[in-house]
Write a structure and sequence with these properties.
219 residues; four-stranded mixed sheet
């Protein structure tokens, strides 16, 4: 069975992830390199672990999280689909089980909000973990006068945390936002669709989704 450790140690995968992030550097996007993908993998693990899913599903969610943005190597547009195709080839070459490959590639191919659907628990955990990674350190250019709205929103987030309630009924995203950089309305202008997607992903996992900003429940 394929493991997260094997995936992380694969030299080709390391190279493709680094090159994929470099494409986004050229396009002026926020950080999508190893900090982001490791965080997504970790949060996806936490979600499924907290909800009582099997160790295998948890590991597959971590692998999907680690590989989910690799398609940016080809193009930002439809990177979920190209990333799923790349992951299929890489994992197949590594001798992964077909069912594991199918689970991982399905999640990757359904994680981007333009085409995303929470078609499985692994896909649902990946969606929430990916959309929840908002933080100041993802902004590459800290020359604030040049910020676009995506930079302002990410830069304004001083803390973000995903939690699962003890009774497994609620998945929460708690944000602390410095409103001097970004009014809360700016957040909703670009992230409302993402939060709707998180709500649907939580439903797939048998839970409800809650969003709290500056200790005030929004959703």
């Amino acid at each position: 069975m394929i493991t997260l450790k094997q995936v992380k140690e694969n030299p080709a995968i390391k190279t493709y992830i680094a090159y994929a992030d470099n494409v986004l550097v050229q396009l002026g996007y926020t950080e999508h390199r190893f900090i982001h993908i490791n965080r997504v993998a970790s949060v996806a693990k936490y979600i499924l672990e907290s909800l009582g899913y099997s160790e295998r599903e948890i590991e597959l969610a971590q692998i999907a999280g680690y590989l989910h943005d690799i398609g940016n190597l080809i193009n930002r547009i439809e990177h979920a689909q190209s990333g799923a195709a790349m992951a299929f080839c890489l994992l197949n070459d590594m001798g992964a089980d077909p069912e594991d490959i199918a689970t991982i590639c399905t999640a990757i191919g359904n994680h981007d909000e333009s085409t995303a659907v929470a078609v499985s628990p692994v896909a649902a955990a990946l969606i929430i973990a990916d959309k929840a990674d908002m933080r100041r350190s993802r902004v590459r250019d800290v020359d604030t006068p040049e910020f676009d709205i995506h930079d302002r929103v990410n830069y304004s987030v001083t803390n973000s945390m995903v939690t699962v309630s003890e009774d497994r009924s609620v998945i929460s995203l708690d944000l602390e936002i410095d409103t001097s950089y970004c009014p809360i309305m700016d957040y909703f202008e670009i992230f409302l669709s993402r939060m709707t997607l998180c709500r649907k992903a939580a439903e797939k996992l048998g839970a409800t989704f809650q969003l709290t900003i500056n200790n005030q429940r929004i959703v």
